[in-house]
Amino acid sequence: MARTPAKAPAKKTPARKAVAKKTTATRASTTKAAAKKTATKAVAKVPAKARKAPNKTAVRKTTKSAASNSSAILTLRHIAETISDVHELTKRQANEIIGQVLEVITKSLRKGDKVRLSGLGILQVRKRPARMARNPRTGEPVKVKASKKVAFRAAKELKDSI
User: Fold this and answer.
1) Domain limits of the chain?
2) Which residue intervals are annotated with compositional bias (Basic residues) in the record (predicted)?
């Protein structure tokens, strides 16, 4: 059996012990500080999670059920595919046509014109005046600037068909 070498000479041993003491002291202080931080974070987060957990699960359940009950979403890409099939165009040409239609509608709304799409409805820009509102957290009154919004009014044919 091989023997382990004897302890190092006395001169080197104290230096190693001193270095070891310093590193263990710094490790202990950093671990204590880290432990305090994690403990305070854990204490602070536990009640918040306990309060919010039922609400989140209720919201998730409702969104999942709403998603399962709702039908598929019709996008511009789907519309372009349908147009390309019906009119024997490429999908790229159909996308360009739809893009141009949207540009024309956007430009006319910027001017302030009404856009009437027969059978669908009317798009128009409405001005919202400046008003006073309240911050729900503090109850402090807040000024809300005047703004513009796009309003859509469905046509009678659309309402009747639904």
Assistant:
1) 74-111, 123-161
2) 9-20, 48-63
